[in-house]
Write a structure and sequence with these properties.
Blueprint (H helix, E strand, L loop, with lengths): L7 E3 L11 E5 L2 E5 L7 H11 L4 E3 L5 H4 L2 H7 L4 E5 L9 H4 L12 H4 L3 E3 L4 E2 L2 E5 L8 E5 L4 E5 L17 H12 L6 E4 L5 E2 L6 H4 L2
The protein binds zinc ion.
Amino acid sequence: MHYKELEVLNLRTDPPMKTNLYLFEYKGKVNLIDAWFSDNSEVVDVIQEKFWRLDNLFITHWHFDHIAWIDVLMERFPNLNCHIHENAFDFLINSDYSLSWYFNADFRVSDEHIKNIHKFKDSEIMDWIRSIYTPGHTIGCSSFLIEEHGICFTWDVLFENTYWRTDLPTWDPGLIKESLSRLGNLNPETIIYPWHWKSSLLKDIDISWFIFD
Ligand SMILES: [Zn+2]
């Protein structure tokens, strides 16, 4: 089956790590996946200029390079809805788990904004976008699926031909296996959008070597 294309803008801002930053409008809502790490204030301007607003910020997990700009975005876009899985929420204010001490920093969401963050459950649908709980890299990881367009943002869980680091606090190899197996059951024509490196079709990714070892 062929999906109808949805325009997904990649405001990639961090060439050394080839980090992606995806922005897209879906059914009249403007959505961003994760609040990146580094000085990217110009990206906020791009969102402002192109759409004049930001409706949803979907957070995949609590590592610093995914949450560092939550406060900035919530300040700049006062009507923004920020979403994170219920198992990840507590770690938003824990710099040990966010790994921000790597940079001698202490990224945490401010008291003012933390109370407005929405905690979602597995398979919850937010503005027509479905969460898929995919723990393993951390116990708080989620992917986001737009079924109508065959698009899944898998972030730090599934990459071109691998999965991401499994040496960080709360990682779990058994959960990675279950999560990859779950993602592997999506339609093979689904486009997988990862946090690092390039997107690819699910059917072109071989995850069987890990799931069935
Ligand atoms: Zn991570």
